[in-house]
Design a protein that fits this description.
By secondary structure, the chain is of the alpha/beta class. It is built from six helices and five strands; from the N terminus they run βαβααβααβαβ. Strand 1, helix 1 and strand 2 form a beta-alpha-beta unit.
């Protein structure tokens, strides 16, 4: 089986929802040994602004034992680090995380 790293970056809501839904379906249907999700880029602003559709899917991932991480540097640069934290979204050094996941054999899927 495979391991996938779902990188959600787009500001386009439909694409971001597709990536999150794929990750959830892959976990539920056991399409992979492991699936991780990171947010890296414009999507972070949508999360910080409280997009309920995206937040609901993040919550579903959390309920499945997965906690997506948003890029702390992007959030700091955009001025919405506090908003992400207030919405319960974990932040961290996503650039480093991507390199580590790829090094562990995760296949990146970018939305």
């Amino acid at each position: 089986m495979s391991k996938f790293l779902v990188i959600v970056s787009t500001s386009e809501k439909e694409k971001s929802l597709l990536g999150l839904r794929w990750a959830i379906a892959a976990l539920k249907n056991k399409w992979a040994d492991d699936v991780e999700v990171v947010f890296f880029g414009p999507i972070e602003k949508s999360i910080a602004e409280g997009d309920n559709d995206i937040l609901a899917l993040i919550e579903e991932l959390k309920n499945m034992g997965k906690e997506p991480t948003a890029c702390v540097r992007v959030a700091e640069a955009g001025g919405y680090l506090q908003d992400l934290s207030a919405r319960g979204v974990k932040t961290g050094p996503v650039g480093e995380m991507i390199a580590e996941f790829v090094g562990k054999g995760f296949v990146p899927l970018v939305f």
